[in-house]
Amino acid sequence: MRSLEQEMGAWKVAEGEVDDDGRSKRTGTMWTASAHIITAIVGSGVLSLAWGIAQMGWIAGVATLFIFSTITLYTSSLLADCYRAPISGNRNYTYMDTVKTFLGGSSYTACGLVQYALLSGLAIGYTITASISMVAISKSNCFHKEGHGAPCKFTNNPYMIAIGITEIFLSQIPNFHKLSWLSIVAAIMSFSYAGIGMGLSFAKVVSGKGEKTTLTGVEIGLDLTAVEKTWRIFQAMGDMALACAYSAILIEVQDTLRSSPPENKVMKKANVVATCAATTLYMMCGCFGYAAQGNHAPGNLLTGFGFYEPFWLIDLANIFIVVHLIGAYQVVAQPVFNLVESWAGARWSKSKFINEEYPLSIGKNNLAINLNKFRLIWRSAFVVVATLISMAFPFFNEILALLGAISYWPLTVYFPLEMHISRNKIKRGTTKWCCLQLLNLVCFLVGLAMAVSSIRGMSKAFHTFKPFTF
User: Residue 235's pLDDT is what?
Assistant: First the structure.
């Protein structure tokens, strides 16, 4: 997380208001940590799980989703134990710090490149996805007002600009410690729009209008070759694996927790709560969606019910998606913001431009906030660049799928397992070591298949992209 020595230079922290490392007292709980995790992982991608199960069928689809959730929960538990150094008990404030403590410099560099490329990419992807939902709202209202035959075509770019302006303001929230309220709101939104999708699906199934489903998923035939089905299965596996992964922010979230009870114990409970809640939501959304839409389930469950009726309910779901993604943007961007600010604070420790905090009072109630010139300029520049990339590369979600595929294995599996081996001094060749390496290998192969599938999807999208189209 961001080095708070800068803030402590500006604020005189009273006795008893600091933790054992001299930083401002952490106030996070299991519930705030769970909210951060849910906000980060339960994205609008939950609406694609019905499509994923359709590609693999009832047995393989449900089993794959459960397996990936179990793997994530296991490796996240191992990672939570690495928050403090084994001998000194010193805190590791970021995932990179943790890797450096247990695995050394080269792994530290590799971890940083992968982690921050993914987090920056997610911010761009969330901008695109939120704008798609805003366009869906405009289309729905247009069809309702003008009739189903109306053209109702809209471009995403004005909505991306509006999202960017909103994120510039929200990005001034100093750190994860001040972000809990936004994560809680975003987490509620994620359950709300997924609940609407499940409700519509359940209603369709109960009414007897559910489409055909099969144990093996979409059937090979005139419209689908064996090769195309294989690619789709790889893509579906990737969607499910990435839907469960959140290791890239785990240590940063853990650093918000109170010192007592021990952070690793609280974080493990938060892992269980968030993973179980997310997995239950995924299972219900994916299974109900597949039962309703069948083997022709769309990539976005909500579009399977059309833009027409009940148009107001579809609009409400898309509003929830937008609010959730605006909050999720901040959750994934905070580690990036704080990495640069920590480096700049250490590099120019005496610079007032970088380190000085300016308290401001807003409104009749004198709401107190602290502004920092460097934070204002750097974070605003990040949001502007992310917005411009979103507008220039509207197919960036395909690029994001590749970033996710590349980062899944090292961040979610490899580093947590290797740090666990180092921390517990597990000897090479023992039964436990072999089992851990087998899990490592299987997840590496899955990640490789996901990456190849993502490259194929990116290649297709590149042929149709139109940058900066208004």
Answer: 82
Q: For the domain that residue 19 is a member of, what is the CATH number?
A: 1.20.1740.10
Structural domain boundaries, residue 216:
5-462
Q: Where are the alpha helices (DSSP H) in 348-370?
A: 352-355
Q: How many domains does the chain have?
A: 1
**CA nearest neighbour of 372 among 17, 18, 10:** 10
Domain membership flag for residue 435? yes
| Mean pLDDT score, 123-136 | 86
Q: For residues 228 and 77, give the distance between their C-alpha atoms in angstroms, rounded to a whole number.
A: 37
Q: How far is CA 186 from CA 258, 285, 330, 361, in A?
A: 22, 18, 10, 26
Instruction: Please say whether the beta carbons of 294 and 210 come within 8 A.
Output: yes
- DSSP per-residue letters across 318-345: HHHHHHHHHHHHHHHHHHHHHHHHHHHH
pLDDT beyond 50 at 154: yes
Compute the Cα dihedral for 275, 276, 277, 280 and give only its sign. positive
pLDDT class of 6 with cuts at 50, 70, 90: very low
Amino acid making up residue 310: P
Q: Does residue 82 carry a pLDDT above 70? A: yes
- Residue 45 within a domain: yes
The span from the CA of 166 to the CA of 440, in Å, is 40
**Residue 3, pLDDT score:** 46
- Could you give the CA distance from residue 199 to residue 202 in angstroms, rounded to a whole number? 5
Residue pair 412/245 in contact (Cβ under 8 Å)? The answer is yes
- Bigger pLDDT: 185 or 31? 31
418/107 Cα distance (integer angstroms): 10
Q: What's this model's pTM, rounded to 2 decimal places?
A: 0.81
Concatenating the DSSP letter of every residue in 278-296 gives HHHHHHHHHHHHHHHHGGG
pLDDT value at position 176? 65
Q: Is 368 helix (H, G, I), strand (E, B) or coil?
A: strand
Is residue 469 included in any domain, yes or no?
no
Query: How far apart are alpha carbons 386 and 388 in whole angstroms?
Result: 6
**Does residue 467 form part of some domain?**
no
